[in-house]
Amino acid sequence: MVTTRDESVLRGSPYRADCPTRRILDRIGDRWTVLIVVALSDGSARFSELRRRIEGVSQKMLTQTLRGLERDGLVSRTVHPEVPVRVEYALTEAGRTLREPLRALEEWSVAHLGEVSASQEAYDRTH
């Protein structure tokens, strides 16, 4: 069976430079995305709650990442017409499917922190 270039892109081939899956991998591989998805795993949260929970994220980066996740259909944004206005973010159905793999990455990084740190120190000493 011969596959055309357009069919290959529609099916997804992240090793091709022009494949849209590259943008998806960029999004889900971003450290702020990983932390936001895991932070929203237990339910919705307000912007200020996310900012407090994810130390080191700037307001600008949190805003940009949430907008990107919303655009990609991974996070929903709900505005509650109250005074003051209350905005909550939650994982969509698609976003919830990322919980397990991203939590696994988080757990892997914690479990292997010592090994990676030791390797980095050894490398830095010899280079």
Automatic annotation (TrEMBL):
Q: Does the keyword Cytoplasm apply?
A: no
Which residues are in the HTH hxlR-type domain?
Answer: 19-117
Which organism does this sequence originate in? Streptomyces sulfonofaciens
What's the source species' lineage? Bacteria, Bacillati, Actinomycetota, Actinomycetes, Kitasatosporales
This chain belongs to the protein called Transcriptional regulator
What InterPro entries does this protein map onto? HTH_HxlR, WH-like_DNA-bd_sf, WH_DNA-bd_sf
Query: Which keywords, in A-to-Z order, does the entry hold?
Result: DNA-binding, Transcription, Transcription regulation
Q: Annotated Gene Ontology MF terms?
A: DNA binding
Q: Does the keyword DNA-binding apply?
A: yes
Q: Name one Pfam family in it.
A: HxlR
